[in-house]
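Protein in question filed below.

…
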Amino acid sequence: MPYTTAPAVIWSAEPDRRPGTPLVVALHGRGADEVSFARLAPHLPQEATAAFVRAPLAEGGGYAWFANRGVGRPLPDSLAATADWLLDWLGTEAAGHTSVSLLGFSGGMAMAGGLLLARPERFAAAVLLSGTLPWDAGLPEERGRLAGVPVFWGRDVADRVIPADLVARTGTWLREDSGARLEERRYPGQGHGISLPELADASAFLRRAWEGAA
């Protein structure tokens, strides 16, 4: 179903400080919200503007990006509705920013992946953390779909929250078929979460991506 209101957002910068900065669209995990995810703001590049967006579907005391048919398996119509909603919002909010990048964790990684697969040309880079791409959701996934897009993929191989078959499929496609400029990092002992070393690596990656696009 279409969403008729703009998303709730916590911004890392006041409106007068946003123009001329890179925009990072930060998508929280399933059952979380933008308030908890905004705690990452001090650990992201301070020269950028981060938009911590609330997902549209109430779930588990928080919010979800799409209805599921199992962990990591979005219903195609639900994922498409949220993608259209976010892309419409970005059509306005991206104005004045030098670029738009994605950062998604867990269910937010699947949503970020959905946006990236749908419209790769709109994004300067993507940080994908502890999740899977949204397979079998009706999105384009042909070889070379992300040609030249810088993609950071961080995870702990011992994380068992996301089904192993989806993680393996994601890794194979990102490495061999996507065409992305992939930076893959592993963080033993991190579990299904985000660590400070991972955030430091992701921030450095984003800066390199933005410098490369200059």
Observations:
- Residues 203 and 209 are 10 Å apart (CA to CA).
- The chain has a mean pLDDT of 96.
- The longest helix spans residues 76-93.
- Residues 13-213 form a domain with the Rossmann fold fold (CATH 3.40.50.1820).
